[in-house]
Design brief:
Layout lengths: L1 H18 L5 E16 L4 E17 L4 E18 L2 E20 L5 E16 L2 E19 L2 E6 L2 E10 L4 E9 L6 E7 L1
Antiparallel strand pairs: 1-2, 1-10, 2-3, 3-4, 4-5, 5-6, 6-7, 6-8, 7-10, 8-9
């Protein structure tokens, strides 16, 4: 697996350096932290979950409105459950690779709107099970220029399909079709254009 990731990274760097001649590039990403707690009254069941996402991205405009880019990063999940006095803990470590294209419109001095469309995979381990996820989707977003080449970036909503496989006993598969805007699908980040 390390060879595949290394080969993919080297291919991306080579491709980006060729395409970057006299083109605008950006580097940046997002950092996300979330925490949720669920209590079932009268049952003694309590679940706490914390997620940390680190997703750097690199992109290059191939024309005035179209860009190709990649997000590749790490997601960490920690779950603590208490059920009838019995406590259990689990941690998940996932790697995300998400190449995408970006179409930018309504460009102005303040910023622009865009749509990201891409495919990706996520794989990792959690509590003795192996996770593999493939996804394809479209995410609308907005960018606000804050000066000196820096821009704030946000995406909101998700329109796409996810296929998740958990290798446990028995093997579990999930298929999700997403269509809508909600706060679970909001990301914020910072990019530097050069």
């Amino acid at each position: 697996m390390k060879r595949v990731v290394f080969t993919f990274a080297m291919t991306l760097v080579t491709m980006t350096s060729v395409l970057a001649q006299e083109r605008t590039m950006w580097i940046g990403g997002s950092l996300g932290v979330s925490h949720s707690e669920n209590k079932l009254d009268g049952t003694g069941t309590n679940t706490k979950q914390t997620n940390i996402d680190i997703l750097p991205e690199l992109g290059v405009f191939v024309s005035e409105r179209f860009a190709i880019a990649i997000r590749a990063g790490y997601e960490h999940t920690k779950v603590k459950s208490v059920d009838d006095g019995m406590e259990s803990k689990s941690k998940g470590h996932d790697v995300v690779i998400n190449p995408f294209v970006r179409y930018t419109f309504l460009n102005g001095t303040i910023g622009s709107l865009f749509v990201d469309g891409g495919v990706g995979t996520k794989f990792g381990k959690s509590a003795g099970s192996t996770l593999t996820e493939f996804f394809v989707g479209i995410k609308p977003g907005a960018m606000i220029n804050i000066g000196n080449g820096f821009s704030l970036l946000t995406t909101f909503g998700n329109f796409g399909y996810n296929h998740t496989t958990l290798k446990t006993h028995p093997k579990t598969k999930y298929n999700d079709l997403n269509f809508g805007f909600n706060l679970d699908n909001v990301t914020m980040g910072l990019i530097y254009n050069f």
